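Let us practice reading a record.
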Amino acid sequence: MRIVIALGGNALLRRGERPDAAVQVAHLAAAAPALAKAAEDNEVVIVHGNGPQVGLLALESFADTSLSKPYPLSDLVAETQGVIGYWVQQALANAGLSRGAVTLVTQTVVDAHDPAFIVPTKYVGTGYPEERARQLALSSGWSVQQDGAEWRRVVPSPAPQRVLELDAAELLLQNGVTVILAGGGGVPVIEGPTGLTGVEAVVDKDATAALIAIELRADLLVMLTDVRAVYLDYGTPTQRPLGQVDPETLASLRFPAGSMAPKINAARHFVETTQARAAIGSLDDTTAVISGTAGTQVQVSSRSGREVQG
């Protein structure tokens, strides 16, 4: 079976944790045995998020007085692809994966006129109290929005149109190599008269993972994050998880644009396009989410009616 697994940046760095490398490596080490088993038994592509990590690099770059201006987000996305990809490769090897695993620095083409450049929605970086976030926004020109009890920077998140390194990924998969691809959604680039140019954005990794899963003809798309499932009324006393659900039902529900909505949209797009299964769940439950016994399982219903189970 061919599986595309998307690891959320927040799954590697949980809310409230220090953004230390050791913290993230420990989370990966804990999840690596299940990921390695999946990669041993299947053709696996791993796409990872980078919201907390790229935000940290952006803050460091902004504060570096030796620079005439901060590094562009596209460059920082490439940096996170390298470091997180290295962590994943090492974690898989230490967990006993006998097949090779490689990280591809990956470019994702976006539309320069995408409306997302006007209305930023993608959370990056750590959270701050509102006053501190507004101070940073004023001094740096950032846009900030509330994310739960904290405030975070938001950046444009244009839709992915094309992933440029898929042919190389296909060759690697056919030769038994696990591929870590399109980290952070891929380095966002636009095509122009002089070729490719990086842009100030972070592509949503779930949208890119769905595109990759469709183009590589995957049998399963799995999105792993820091919550057990998709919840209705999340954060309220009446919150309840979605178990088995079809794409039509998901289309009738509403989720926050900067958090769960991208995963819902990616799952719907993949399932509707391929008729295959998508799953959303916790990194801690990787094996069960892949097998279909945990998390939110999205697939075309075998019944005439809609299906929602908690």
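A brief commentary: The two ends are 27 Å apart (CA to CA).
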